[in-house]
C-alpha cells in the first residue's frame, strides 16, 4: 500500500527506495517526505529499518533502487562527506563519539568540513589554518554552551555520564548549523526530565531547522512531531499526524509484543 500525504515543500524526500542487505529485503519501496520546517517522526518496531533509512539518506548505504530528493533536487547517491555541505547532519543511534578525543574535539569534527583549509592546508601550514581552527573551536564551545554542557568540553566521553555524552553527540550534529537534522533515538537511555528538556530543545529548532526524528519513546514522538511515518518490516504501513497514527489499528498491531514502546 502507498501513502500519499499532501506534502507541502518537502526539503527531503525518499522515493521508492529499496535496500537488500545479506540477501534480506531491509527496505521495500519506501517513500517518505519531510516537509520543511517541521519535526517529522519515523517510528516502527525494532528492526523495522529506521536506521537503514538514515544510512541511505546519509550515503552509508546505496539503495538498490529509488532515489532521494534534497531541497527538490534528485540525488542518486549522497556521499557521507558531502552531507554537511548539503545542510544535513545526523546523530547516530547510541552516541558514537571518538573515545580518545575530548568532547570539544568531537564537536569540532562535526564542523570540520566547514574549515576550508582541511588536512592538505594544515600539512602545508597555510597561514589561515589556525584562524579557521580557532573559529571552529569557538563555534563548538558556543554550541556546548547552548546545550548547557560547556564544562564537559575538555573531558573524554568515557568520563561523562551517558546523558551528557548524548548531548555532546547532538552538539557535534548542530555545529555545522544544519538545515536538516536527522536524530536517531536521541532519547535512548536518558531520564524523563532529560527527555522533557530534549522535547523543548527539538521544538525550539523549528521552523529554522527541519528535524527527522527516529525515536522509540512514544511520548516524545507524539509530543514533538507534526507528522509521523510508520515503518514495519521495511515497509511504510501508516503516516499522518500524531493523533491519526495513534489511532491507526495497523500501527497498534505492529507494536504489539514490543517491550520498548513506551
Ligand atoms: N549490514 C546489515 N546486514 C544485514 N542485515 C542488516 C544490516 N544492517 C541492518 N540489518 C537488518 O536490517 C533490519 C533493519 O535494521 P535497522 O535499520 O537497524 O532497524 P531499526 O533502526 O528500525 O531498529 C534489521 O533486521 C537488521 O538486523
Ligand atoms: Mg535503529
Describe this structure in words.
The structure is a single chain. This protein is α/β, with parallel strands linked by helices. It folds into two domains: 1-87 and 179-262, P-loop containing nucleotide triphosphate hydrolases (Rossmann fold, 3-Layer(aba) Sandwich); 97-177, no CATH class. Helices cover 33% and strands 24% of the residues. The protein has helices at residues 50-57, 103-110, 118-123, 129-146, 162-174, 192-205, 218-224, 242-247, 249-255, and strands at 10-21, 24-35, 39-43, 65-70, 73-75, 88-90, 180-184, 210-214, 227-232, 235-240. The strands form two sheets. It has a six-stranded mixed β-sheet with strand order 6-7-8-3-9-10, with helices on both faces. The chain is globular. The model has no long low-confidence stretch (mean pLDDT 88). The chain binds adenosine-5'-diphosphate and magnesium ion. Adenosine-5'-diphosphate binds next to β2 and α1.
Key terms:
262 residues; alpha/beta; Rossmann fold; 2 domains; six-stranded mixed sheet; four-stranded antiparallel sheet; 9 helices; 10 strands; globular; binds adenosine-5'-diphosphate; binds magnesium ion
Give a quick rundown of the structure:
By secondary structure, this protein is an alpha/beta fold. The protein has helices at 50-57, 103-110, 118-123, 129-146, 162-174, 192-205, 218-224, 242-247, 249-255, and strands spanning 10-21, 24-35, 39-43, 65-70, 73-75, 88-90, 180-184, 210-214, 227-232, 235-240.
